[in-house]
């Protein structure tokens, strides 16, 4: 039996993730059935679940992929830039609207919550490191602990995701992000 190349496996995995992203965006987490995932990826359930244990693993792989991409931006340009990128290209992040839907699972399913938090660690670490560097450079408010600033930015990020998911990505949100950015800067 011929061995499948690593490049072929990586391409197939990418094909699955791209199709799943579209499927989750269109139908939500619960509505992204195996049949719909098959249609969106153009692959059989056997091919999909050869690469991913189950739908949770597929969803969490998307979360990890996007968290990694967002962490790179957050580390160099900050979490607010990540949010600006979301506004500029909402179609790249619209699947995150499922985050509203999976809040119930995060609350009720400890295993899913642990896996989700594991995927979010990279973005959180990059954001905290950037905030600490900006604080040390005198660019951020010193009267507010870094953890509070992080919580504030996470809350804004969740709100932005909700707005994008509901189709309200153009409601003066750039100006809102300007206000958020100004609110965490050091006051002269």
From TrEMBL:
Gene3D superfamilies reported in the protein's UniProt record: Tetracycline Repressor, domain 2
SUPFAM superfamilies found in the cross-reference section: Homeodomain-like, Tetracyclin repressor-like, C-terminal domain
Quaternary data: Homodimer.
DNA-binding region positions on the chain: 33-52
Name of the molecule in the record: TetR family transcriptional regulator
Entry keyword set: DNA-binding, Repressor, Transcription, Transcription regulation
A GO molecular-function annotation: transcription cis-regulatory region binding
Ranges of residues in domain HTH tetR-type: 10-70
InterPro entries: DNA-bd_HTH_TetR-type_CS, Homeodomain-like_sf, HTH-type_TetR-like_transc_reg, HTH_TetR, Tet_transcr_reg_TetR-rel_C_sf
Pfam families membership: TetR_N
């Amino acid at each position: 039996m011929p061995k499948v190349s690593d490049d072929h496996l990586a391409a197939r995995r990418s094909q699955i993730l791209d199709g799943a992203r579209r499927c989750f965006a269109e139908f939500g987490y619960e509505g992204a059935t195996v049949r719909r995932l098959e249609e969106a990826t153009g692959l059989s359930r056997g091919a999909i679940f050869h690469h991913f244990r189950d739908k949770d693993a597929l969803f969490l792989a998307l979360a990890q992929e996007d968290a990694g991409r967002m962490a790179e931006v957050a580390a160099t340009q900050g979490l607010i830039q990540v949010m600006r990128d979301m506004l500029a290209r909402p179609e790249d992040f619209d699947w995150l609207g499922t985050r509203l839907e999976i809040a119930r699972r995060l609350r009720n399913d400890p295993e899913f919550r642990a896996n989700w938090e594991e995927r979010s660690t990279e973005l959180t670490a990059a954001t905290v490191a950037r905030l600490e560097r900006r604080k040390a450079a005198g660019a951020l408010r010193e009267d507010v602990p870094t953890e509070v600033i992080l919580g504030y930015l996470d809350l804004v990020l969740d709100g932005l995701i909700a707005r994008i998911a509901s189709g309200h990505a153009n409601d003066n949100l750039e100006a809102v992000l300007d206000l958020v950015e100004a609110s965490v800067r050091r006051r002269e």
